[in-house]
Write a structure and sequence with these properties.
The complex is a heterodimer of chains A (311) and B (184). By secondary structure, chain A is mostly helical. Chain A has one domain (2-310). Chain A has helices at 2-31, 41-51, 59-78, 91-99, 101-113, 116-147, 152-162, 172-186, 197-200, 211-235, 252-279, 285-310. Chain B is an alpha/beta fold and 184 residues long. In chain B, helix 5 (96-99) links the parallel strand 4 (89-93) and strand 5 (121-123). The N and C termini of chain B lie far apart (44 Å). The chains are: A mainly alpha (311), B alpha/beta (184). The interface between A and B is medium-sized, with 32 and 29 residues.
């Protein structure tokens, strides 16, 4: 099962990530009263990018994007998708470190390209990461303190027994805080400051064309999957639904149904994010930092204090 | 539209993907740009054919020049065109890039764009309506199917001709030739 999941999980994440990108374009189009592209449009874009000749700006330009893509694939191995997981060790601490490696790879490439728009985009990305990592760390610290473990798999397993983390009242405040910073983690509209196409011509990827752009799209799809899956794992109980699958636990059907429940939960979170994305304009970077360091941090800190007192 | 025919996708995926995923750089010269916002937003919705605007020439494969081309913007147009990755297609929009249009005797606009960069198709009219853009795109699909949208190959093959025309206009271009074997 474990060896199988080494191959299945990245493939599943890639397919689901591309599908979610397509669905998000379709849903945004429907909100605008348009017909919209087919849901497989991102796949067409990736094939087109692979068929184009790309211009390289040196060894670091190629190396950075590959580092970014491979670190995203490694990140998938730490994520349990229902019963499907490759690694139980490491847990949230390693996860947090690896989460910064993706943007770091993109930053390496962009620095090698020498485009001023790219440099602005990269500096914005790291400022935004600095802004959302504070509440994110507080939220994850709260969860780790509450469950007395740093392992993602164990957190999911405890929730399978007791129901979603949201349903236990001590974790309601951290859940709200995480939901408030989720657009920043995913990089969608109120926090689309990194790749603002109208201001800094799509920021860090301004010099990416052809195969580099294709790799970037794949990396973007994986990042979308990771951002949504982490929220589902920590707060929405992963691939379980109030003990619905307990009677058939351990069978192949339970695994498949668990994955489907997991994906449905991810999809619901994605649709809510898209509604936010479709109606809000873009923050400036200092507005984003002011927001992220004020309300989500405050709520997460109160949540941490409550959990610490309870323990 | 043969986007759903899977056998064609397996036969030549690159060509099919190039047809149905036009990422467009709009070069906003002149009045033609007025027609672009309705065609990419709710009213006509170009995104259902996979056509979306992108911010940089590196990510694009369709170059849309909307309106008259003054000599100063031509320099930027050439640089933008040379930065796009191959295969790339150029469509000139309106009657001005064809023969100068109403600026045919102006001292600072060029009359024929095809002398400086290869153009795959023209959408004639002053101004063409957004429907004409979609008809132009369907014609470009046909051209790609028949391998006749070969502007980027012509640019490679006849680079001496294009470079000579560019240098005749500008005297000093300010950047080296794109293809090494075509030095003049």
């Amino acid at each position: 099962m474990k060896i199988l999941s080494l191959f299945i999980s990245p493939l599943l994440a890639l397919i689901i990530g591309l599908l979610f990108l397509g669905i998000s374009r379709k849903i945004t189009a429907k909100i605008h009263w348009r017909c919209g592209p087919p849901v497989y449009q991102p796949l067409i874009d990736v094939i087109r990018s692979f068929s184009q000749k790309s211009i390289s700006h040196g060894a670091f330009f190629d190396f950075g994007i590959i580092l970014s893509l491979s670190s995203s694939v490694v990140l998938i191995y730490f994520l349990p998708v229902g019963d499907l997981y490759a690694m139980t060790s490491g847990g949230l601490i390693a996860f947090l470190y690896l989460m910064l490696l993706g943007p770091f790879g993109i930053a390496l490439s962009s620095a090698a390209s020498g485009n001023p728009n790219s440099s602005i985009g990269v500096s914005r990305k790291f400022l935004l990461a600095l802004a959302y990592e504070v509440p994110l760390l507080l939220v994850l610290l709260t969860v780790m303190t509450h469950y007395n473990t740093i392992s993602l798999v164990e957190i999911v397993n405890i929730q399978a027994g007791t129901g979603m983390a949201f349903s236990s009242w001590a974790l309601v405040l951290p859940g709200i805080a995480y939901f408030l910073i989720l657009p920043a983690v995913l990089g969608v509209r109120p926090f689309e400051i990194v790749s603002a196409p109208q201001e800094i011509s799509s920021g860090p990827v301004a010099e990416f064309g052809g195969k580099h752009l294709a790799f970037y799209t794949l990396q973007h799809a994986l990042q979308l999957f990771v951002g949504l899956a982490l929220f589902v794992n920590i707060f929405l109980g992963g691939g379980t639904l109030f003990g619905l699958l307990n009677p058939i636990a351990g069978t192949v059907w339970a695994t498949i149904l668990g994955i489907i429940i997991f994906l449905v939960k991810m999809f619901i979170v994605l649709v809510i994010e898209l509604f936010i994305n479709a109606v809000y304009p873009r923050f400036r970077i200092e507005q984003a930092m002011r927001y992220l360091w004020k309300w989500p941090t405050l709520i997460a800190f109160v949540g941490l204090v409550i959990v610490a007192i309870l323990n | 539209m043969d986007r759903n025919q899977i056998s064609k996708w397996f036969k030549n995926p690159g060509k099919m993907a190039n047809k149905y995923s036009f990422h467009v750089v709009y070069f906003c010269t002149g009045c033609g740009i007025i027609e672009i916002p309705p065609s990419i937003t709710t009213r006509w919705d170009a995104e259902r054919f996979g056509i979306i605007p992108v911010a940089t020439p590196r990510q694009a494969n369709l170059f849309l020049i909307t309106g008259y081309v003054s000599t100063k913007t031509l320099k930027a147009i050439i640089r933008t065109y040379e930065q796009m990755p191959e295969p790339k297609y150029t469509v000139a929009f309106g009657s001005c890039p064809i023969n100068g249009g109403m600026y045919y005797d102006s001292y600072n606009t060029i009359t024929s764009l095809d002398k400086y960069i290869p153009v795959d198709g023209y959408i004639a009219g002053c101004m063409p309506r957004p429907e004409a853009i979609f008809i132009g795109v369907t014609h470009l699909w046909k051209l790609i199917d028949m391998d006749k949208a070969d502007g980027y190959k012509r640019y490679r093959r006849d680079y001496k001709f294009y470079r000579a025309n560019q240098e005749q206009l500008f005297k000093e271009l300010g950047w080296p030739p794109l293809f090494k074997d075509a030095s003049l």
